[in-house]
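Note to self: keep these together.
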Amino acid sequence: MKNSTVITITTVHGSKSFTIGQFAKNIMGYAVFFSFMLFLGGGIFVYMLSAKVSDYKDIEEKYHRLLATNSNLEMNINKKENELGEIQEKISDIETMIGLEPKEDFEVGNRLDIAELDAQEKLLMLRNIPNGSPLNSNMVTSNFGWRENPTQESKQFHTGLDLRATINTPVYATADGIVEVARKESKIGYGKLLVLDHVLGFKTLYAHLNELGVKAGQFVKKGQLIGYSGNTGISSGPHLHYEVRYIGIALNPKSFVDWNLKDYGRIFEQEKKVGWESLSQGIKWQWTLLKQLSSQKEQRLQASLMSNANYTSTD
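Structure:
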């Protein structure tokens, strides 16, 4: 038959023939075509799926790496937060130590700047204004003020503080200064005598000494050995007579002997004859000037080093 196809199938039992018409051939062709396309599509789908799986694995690996990185960052952040907390606690301790009220709502940098300025001001004040005892001990035998004079048996105003000291007890400067007086005469008044001239209008006097350790015009530092206590001049026994004066006015030395960084503010209430506010401003100005000079010096040094480096490189 025209447009027909005969298919013969032979077995042991014989042969059988089948005639397939054009329509059936078309159906079979379409079936083969669709099977092929299905197979091809399946292959493409499997390939694309494999690529997606590979991409997913890459994404999963990146995700786990990001998780690990994030975990490390969180640990570092927690560590830095703990360190910052410790720093803030130390700053608070420093602020408390130097007499500042802790300012926890301020940034760390600002708190450090304020603490530095306040600490430097206080250290400069305590370096230049008499404070602490001129002896290793401060046992008082006669206070500042009116008293019965032990050598003249009359009531007189005692302008200093008598501190118990055996002969040749070391005596130390209570602030930086210049030796204004170094008197070696031992039989009159205060006997062997030292007067130190400090900045900001203060002077200290050390009387009845047995031996002088410095000369007039010499610069001395706070805590430097300047002489030895004795019983020279008009004295009822071995001791050190110690005075503090401000622009010629005798002040109670006990307030200055007890003055230190821990009890820094107490003296401002005890000694009203001193213009503490203006002195504080003067000290701040000195510190600011010193920082400016130091900064300018550092800038000139860096410029000089860079100039020398450039000169060397062109040789």
